[in-house]
Amino acid sequence: MFYEIRRYQIQPGRRDEWVRYMEETVIPFQAEKGMSVTASFVDEEDPDGYVWIRRFEDEQERTALYADVYQSDRWRAELDPKVKSFVLVDQIKVTRVVPTSKSALR
């Protein structure tokens, strides 16, 4: 099992709007597809920073879920263009982490 920590820079001044879109549209859509979204955060020190975390059982599950989400008609036609209107795509940072044996997130 591993987690994917995704760090985004949002277009200046649009973070509140982004958070609403994530929480009302993107996260529910991905959850419907089987994605496990563990957390969603705003950066306390960066007014345009946003972080979210997803959990995967293994690489096979991640690959299948990515295909189900990102190759879907709805993602391609509706959600992806809207996401790209908010996120500075060239600044996305993704870190994969594995919990230690004593982690509460095991």
Automatic annotation (TrEMBL):
Annotated organism of origin: Amycolatopsis rhizosphaerae
Query: A Pfam family for this UniProt protein?
Result: NIPSNAP
Gene3D superfamilies xrefs: 3.30.70.100
Protein name stated in the entry:
NIPSNAP family containing protein
Q: Which InterPro entries does its entry note?
A: Dimeric_a/b-barrel, NIPSNAP
NIPSNAP domain mapped to chain residues: 3-102
Q: Which residues form the signal peptide?
A: none
Q: So which domain of life are we looking at?
A: Bacteria
